Amino acid sequence: MAAALPEPPGEPLQAVGDAWSLTDVITRLRRVLRSSVRHEFPWESLPMAQVEILQRLADEPDLGVSELAARQRLATNTVSNLIQQMVLSDLVSRTPRPGDRRAQNLRLTGTGTQLLQSWQNANERRVANALSQLPRNRQTLIEEAIPALSELAALLETDDSADA
Fold first, then answer.
1. What ranges do the domains of the chain cover?
2. What is the fold, at CATH topology level, of the domain defined by 36-150?
3. Is the keyword DNA-binding assigned to this protein (predicted)?
């Protein structure tokens, strides 16, 4: 059986309002998810910047600080400071990179992995509970939108012209 060809790109959203509405919903979801798990993870114990770094390192172990900063679109010194805090908290480990004594590979520690998993589980419980309160047709729409939203996130993550 032949592999399905990817669909050509669609027309852009017709109205700026449609793009803004999507941005608004994403921002609201992110804010409410971030704040809703704070009873389990106070800001001081796990700032959002650290959560995002833990997520990235879980997906891409052995990045260096510069690579991590580029992927997160943050200044290298900002990431370096965050990594220093995370190393002191036993969330991330640094190991020398073979062939380059100055560069280091970054990895989650067992503690970092457990904390990230707990944070993800708390969010999963919150989202599952909210989804269960929606009508089944709305749940289905959201589930079917996930692959497209994931592709959109990947495009935005790699689109340097978005910063211009």
1. 36-150
2. Arc Repressor Mutant, subunit A (1.10.10)
3. yes
